[in-house]
Structure formats: C-alpha cells, structure tokens
Design brief:
5 helices, mainly alpha, about 65% helix, globular
Length: about 120
C-alpha cells in the first residue's frame, strides 16, 4: 500500500519543527548548524518514523525554511536556550517531546509560518 505524497498542515508543521529542533540541538552540541546532508537525512528519518510521505517539492520547501526559523528561535531565546533545553526536546526514540515548552514553542512558530504562507 502506497503512502500519500502530501502531508497535511499539522504534519508539515511537525516535520518543520523536528528540523528546527534538530538544527538547534546540533548548534548547541557542535557550534554548527546541520549540513544539507544531515537535513536530508533528518527529513527521511522523520518521514520513516512517522509513516509520512512527502513529494520532493514539499520536502525541499520545508527543509529550506528550517534553518531560518532555527536562527530566529535561537535569537529570540538566546538567554534561555541551553544544552539542557536542547537535549530535552527529543524523546529516547528521537521523536519530538511535546511535553517540552521549547518544542511546543517551536511547533507553534512553525505552524504560524505555514499558515501565514497559505502553502498547501
């Protein structure tokens, strides 16, 4: 059975939030943002673990926004974003932990971004 190649708004927001959180965690751990290769790998990992399918244009559109949003989030919470916050964004299975205030804030930022674009 094939998976649909279109994510709904919430799934797009969650994938985007996952990529943003991945950027932020990597930045906190290494001082660098995710490489393009790691963004592609992270996108595939999220799609695989969430049973989602997205066409190439949808993946590129979301992945291309992740770094800009991550930079905005990092600037907005420069004083309150540290390694403990970054590490707490993910569960053991590398899924976003929505119990984390940081994750909920990132998700809402991503959702607002997508709604503001009216991109479907």
């Amino acid at each position: 059975m094939s998976r649909p190649l279109d994510l709904d708004l919430r799934a797009r927001a969650e994938l985007l939030a996952y990529l943003v959180a991945s950027h932020l965690l990597t930045r906190e751990m290494t001082g660098e943002w995710l490489s393009v290769e790691h963004v592609v790998e992270s996108t595939k990992l999220w799609l695989s673990s969430n049973g989602g399918g997205a066409d190439l244009m949808q993946r590129v559109h979301l992945a291309s926004q992740a770094l800009d949003i991550a930079k905005r989030v990092a600037l907005a919470s420069a004083s309150g974003f540290g390694s403990k916050t970054a590490a707490g964004m993910f569960c053991e299975n590398l899924r976003l932990d929505f119990r984390s205030d940081a994750v909920r804030e990132i998700y809402q930022t991503c959702l607002n971004q997508l709604v503001g674009q009216r991109w479907h």
